[in-house]
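>> received
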Amino acid sequence: MIPYYITKRVAPALLIILIGLFYSCEGLFHFSPNEITLKESEKNLNAKNIARIQSQVPNDTLRFIFMGDTQRWYDESSDFIKSANAQPGISFVVHAGDISDFGLATEFKWINDIMKNLKVPYVTVVGNHDLVANGPLVYESMYGPMDYSFEFGDNKFIFVNTNSREYKFNGRVPNLPWLLSELRDNPKNKNAIIMAHAPPFDADFDPSMQENFSKMLANDPNVRFTLYGHQHTFKDGEYYGDGVHYFVTTSMGERGYLLVSSWKEGYKIERVLF
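>> returned
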């Protein structure tokens, strides 16, 4: 159980570090806030949950939830679970990143303890806050690769790390060659749905890569829309005037998410407040 004062965000950085030092769900002491101690049930969660998704029988219209930026909003994230579980016909949930605030294993574990109360599987995108401290090691241990894809029904989902600033704008994040190969590897012309944390029009996305990224999406007829988090507000628009619609979901702190419906020739995206 997360202490009540943590949820009220009283000196959050100090408290989380102290609890990372002394508190553990397994009843053990942690000697460093950067220590990574995971149970087997907490490892490789994306692959496990993709298997659960693909074990379902897909409908002609797929419905899923896109939410994000849980960070320190534990109470609000618990309320999100109640709202998500009340949505009919949902196949899975996508967490748009910033699972944690300080990249600590304890934070990732707390959010997973909340998210596993969903009635459906969930998968994740890596956020910029998830790349702080030992965050990259925790994320890859708990969830798997930062760039990955899977198919379900008439859709191909492509998850890409777009947190360029955390890599000092080195020209390699996002991994555009990998993204292009994933877009091309779509022989059945399924809907290609790209999901990431930082949108290309955000200051944390490498500005030298923005044009190539947006053109790559626009040049693929299977890409109609793409989904992001990071900005803690709802946004949508054809930012590059090329027919690709960009949607941004808000944070758990603002108590909202996107409800996405996708079918072979179209899609619908609704904003939900809880």
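>> The chain has one domain: 35-273.
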